[in-house]
Amino acid sequence: MSVDDGVRGRPVPDPATITAVIELAARAPSLHNTQPWRWRFDGRCLCLYADAERQLTSTDPLARQLVISCGAMLDHVATVFADRGWHTDIVRVPDERHPDRLAAIEFRPWSNPPANIRALARAVEHRRTDRLALHEPVGWAEVLPRLRALTAAQYVRLDVLDESVRPQLAALSREYATLRGHDLFYDTELHWWAGHSDAREGIPRTALASEAEFARVGVGRVFPPGPRTAHRDHFADRAQLVVLSAVRDSVPQWVRIGEALSAVLLECTVAELATCTLTNITELPAGRDLLTGMISSPGIPQVVVRVGTPPTDDAYQPAPTPRRPVTDILTLAGPTPTAPPRSRNR
Fold this sequence. Notes:
- There is one protein chain.
- By secondary structure, the chain is of the alpha+beta class.
- The chain folds into 2 domains: 15-126 and 324-332, NADH Oxidase (3-Layer(aba) Sandwich); 140-308, NADH Oxidase (3-Layer(aba) Sandwich), CATH 3.40.109.10.
- The chain contains 10 helices and 11 strands.
- α2 packs across α3 (117-126), α2 (64-83) crosses α8 and α4 (140-152) packs antiparallel against α8 (251-270).
- The longest helix has 20 residues, at 64-83.
- It starts with 14 loop residues before the first helix and ends in a 14-residue tail after the last strand.
């Protein structure tokens, strides 16, 4: 336990717990696995900052996807802290003195977090992006209301697209790939971050679909092709397509979109459903306008998520993507707590 200068006796996690939580929560998804976040703990408050040096200025000129990525890690962090017996009081965005600060977290011991927190925290480690074809999600009627409740808590709207729009989205994905292929800067960003074997960041080639595998999915970003494999070659994609929409385009809303995205991905992982986050469709105005006409709720589409069930007889497992060392993303400063943290009984 350490003492907050403003409120005597307020307990906070010790540095070892902070470090362990950030290291695990860094499994959060991000655009091309750029991991565009920085954290700073001053002995009382844990702050999340956007790492502007990791912005992909052609793919993401407004840093919208960068902020969404940071929001996803923010929810991962809150989930893992809850599993370790800490409630996180989050103040989101921004401080005029620190325009890159997206959130500040203060702590309270939490002896009775929700019963499903342990499963969600485990899902942080086990979640993967599955870019291959999927079957319809098993148990979808039971899962969907939970997803809607989770996103509503972040003031985010969730819509499920009708199967009839899939050909339009697949055609748009191909059109965008052709259009973006003429953009030297976009192409450079794509090939810099995807299809290589860096041990710290980016998308390794083994995590990408081959041309034949992607053809059975159709909806999504066209990446450099992965290894010449033919997994799941006996069926076409039947995943549900889910859209997350914001009330408005703003940094606070983008943070909440990221938090809602994280909640959806973890809940689906617990339900043994596979997911793949798609942001290429919402990068250009025409794509967002098309999605707006496909959803029933008012809002601005931000992210599409494929949700499905992988084949039970399939030996393929999506490859984990690398992560930066925790020392690259976390700074510990300020007074050091003098006693171990309070945590849940295990």
